[in-house]
Specification:
The chain is α+β, with helices and mostly antiparallel strands. 36% of the residues lie in helices and 23% in strands. Helix 1 packs antiparallel against helix 13 and helix 6 packs across helix 7. 41% of the residues are buried.
């Protein structure tokens, strides 16, 4: 999970765009697809491997940001006549278009994941696939891996099935629209059930000790040609939607474990020192955390709209460091096995248009349900996937972090010397004069350095912007 999200709406000045281009060049980001890759993608668009099962009569819908066109998932939710629920979850079938060992496949292994920058994204697959033929766009018939999860009345998974099928989404929805429809009572049953099932799954998450962090996003918002930063706290609909994906990832892990071959997304339990540091941060931010209250329970009680709570949620992401991928074959017991934040075995399988490993996990799950041996091209790639994904994820995190620093500096460069209200959200334990501040307005999270005296963790203070020079320095504040 990234520490900070950033979305850019509208176009910014030429200097900022030039700096972002230089950033991509410096990171070695592969922007243009080679001609053979584009040619293979065009051929694949016209000649995909189509499944025999036709599920186009299922009225699926997608939930994504309004501008998104790389739509990995579509769902349909229903009540079962015997009680409980049936969730259909269609995942884009990238393997229907990508030939193992071909140019497209090799390029995907080079890129590993879609990279998101404030001004553009660098996709894993050519747009002809990721935003075209393979995307679950409304009113487009395309191949998918169609999951069917039957749940009991409490939302627990009773049975799982996944197989290839032709699907056709009926509607492209966004989070704000979904939230309005649910809150206003205008959502029809398949959509209204998202709240019901999502809430049940959240309760089960709490029961098993899992945790989902509702970390506020940073957004760059255009105002008549000028730009400002703002925070966006996730809506309840974001969480309900995420629960469907999490449930599918957990089901995928169970299928692969039962078959004896797979690749899990794993996260070790946070060391006591990291949790202890969070307790000190909570105290400084004046967040009450009784010793008998588990970390997960505390996080669920927080309101991301409150600055102190938002700051604490940002710091909670430090416990997610160390996530990786664990491959197991031949029925061996995987080690590590669990994802500590999910509190269960878990696999990445729901975003194959944007993440390389998901294509392989999907194939393993289809084979497990059918009782077949996994395809040889999947088995041959498994051993290298953890390192490939680690390298790709590291690049994605660096791109995000550097983009945030660059954009903050660009938007504040004309305000050096001005003062702002801020909350000290982090102080380095070995360097008490150095820390991080969370500005109320604009929505900036930046470094602060004091000349003397320890920084007052959790206090609201006045800070002065000392440096903001995009491309050469990051934003730096000092106590005013």
């Amino acid at each position: 999970m990234p520490r900070r999200h950033m979305i850019m709406t509208g176009a910014d000045g030429l200097s900022l765009r030039a700096a972002l281009r230089e950033l991509r060049t410096g990171l070695g980001v592969p922007e243009e697809f080679p001609a053979p890759v584009l040619a293979e993608a065009e051929r694949a668009v016209g000649n995909p491997v189509l499944p025999g099962l036709d599920a186009t009569g299922l009225p699926l819908f997608t939930i994504d940001p309004p501008a998104s066109r790389d739509l990995d998932q579509a769902m349909h939710l229903a009540k079962r006549p015997s009680g409980g629920y049936r969730v259909h979850y269609a995942i884009a079938d990238v393997a229907a278009y990508v030939t193992p060992g071909g140019a497209l496949d090799a390029e995907a292994h080079r890129r590993v994941t879609t990279l998101y920058f404030p001004d553009e994204k660098v996709p894993l697959h050519p747009a002809a696939l990721s935003e075209g033929a393979a995307s679950l766009l409304p009113d487009q018939t395309c191949p998918a891996l169609l999951w069917r999860l039957d749940l009991d009345a409490e939302g627990r998974v009773e049975s799982t099935d996944v197989r290839r099928a032709l699907v056709r989404s009926r509607a492209k929805l966004d989070y704000e629209g979904v939230q309005r429809a649910v809150d206003g009572g205008t959502a029809e049953e398949p959509l209204a059930l998202l709240e019901e099932i999502g809430t049940l799954r959240e309760a089960l998450e709490a029961e098993r000790g899992g945790i989902s962090l509702n970390v506020p996003e940073q957004e760059i918002v255009e105002h008549g040609g000028s730009y400002s930063l703002a925070y966006r706290a996730p809506l309840p609909a974001d969480g309900w939607n995420a629960q469907i994906s999490l449930m599918t990832g957990m089901a995928a892990a169970e299928l692969m474990l039962s078959a004896g071959t797979g690749i899990l997304r794993t996260l070790p339990t946070a060391p006591d020192g990291a949790v202890g540091r969070l307790r000190r941060t909570a105290k400084a931010l004046r967040i009450e955390w009784p010793h008998h209250v588990p970390y997960a329970e505390l996080v669920r009680s927080l309101d991301p709209h409150r600055p102190a709570h938002a700051a604490f949620l940002q710091e909670c992401t430090t416990l997610l460091r160390g996530a990786g991928y664990t491959v197991f074959t031949g029925g061996e017991a995987p080690d590590p096995l669990l994802h500590a934040a999910v509190a269960a075995p878990y696999a990445h399988c729901t975003a194959p248009l944007r993440r390389l490993v998901d294509r392989y996990a999907g194939e393993l799950c289809v084979a497990a349900v059918a009782g077949d041996e996994p395809p040889q091209w999947v088995l041959a790639a498994l051993a290298d996937l953890p390192k490939e994904m680690a390298d790709g994820t590291r690049l994605a995190n660096t791109a995000e972090r550097e983009s945030v620093d660059l954009v903050e500096a660009a938007l504040l460069k004309d305000h050096v010397g001005e003062t702002f209200e801020a909350t000290v959200i982090d102080v380095k334990e070995r360097e008490p004069l150095v820390g991080t501040v969370h500005l109320a307005e604009p929505a900036v999270i930046g470094r602060i350095e004091a000349a003397s005296g320890a920084l007052p963790l959790g206090d609201r203070i006045r800070v002065r912007l000392a440096e903001a020079d995009p491309g050469t320095t990051k934003v730096l504040f000092v106590p005013a």
